[in-house]
Write a structure and sequence with these properties.
Length: about 170
């Protein structure tokens, strides 16, 4: 009986990710479905960890994230998130940064990349960003992506460096 239950929850997990990937093109929010249908014991297994934070956002949505345990470069992270119908995380404020940093426990990429290799400016998914916590010299050429360190401080990194990836739905 335990095996049948495991298969059904695993199948549910696969179907949900497939549905979320499909819904990505429709710009649907999968957080509610993940929170409701994926059992918490399944969320922390395998090559990724899934977590839904409470309390809900001001607009009443549940925040769900996937943390890939295997570290990867920024572009591979974009592809990994996109395959789930998600995107690399954008940090909204200090509390959000702290919550994600405490959960991940590793440095991770955020959705910010230098506009051009020699530019001093970064493109953020939400521009202009409402919150930043940059604590390093951003003028170093070749360091075109942004990571959040375990301390919550942001720093530039080479986009090929291997860091954790956190996807948001």
């Amino acid at each position: 009986m335990q095996t049948a239950n495991h298969i059904s929850t695993s199948l549910t997990w696969i179907i949900l990710f497939f549905a979320c990937s499909f819904d990505y093109f429709c710009e649907a929010d999968c957080s509610k479905a993940i929170h409701k249908f994926v059992p918490s014991q399944i969320r922390e297994t395998g090559g990724y960890r899934l977590h839904c934070f409470e309390p809900k956002t001001p607009d009443g949505n549940v925040e769900c994230y996937v943390h890939f345990v295997r570290k990867m470069g920024f572009e591979d992270g974009i592809k990994a998130c996109k395959s789930l119908g998600a995107r690399i995380i954008t940090i909204r404020d200090a509390e959000h940064s702290k919550r994600i940093s405490n959960w991940v426990e590793y440095s991770f990429y955020i959705n910010a990349k230098r506009i051009e290799p020699k530019s001093a400016y970064f493109f953020y998914y939400i521009y202009p960003p409402k919150y930043t916590n940059i604590a390093c010299d951003t003028s170093i050429l070749g360091r075109d992506c942004m990571i959040v360190r375990t301390t919550g401080l942001w720093c530039t990194a080479q986009c090929e460096e291997k860091h954790s990836i956190v996807c948001e739905f």
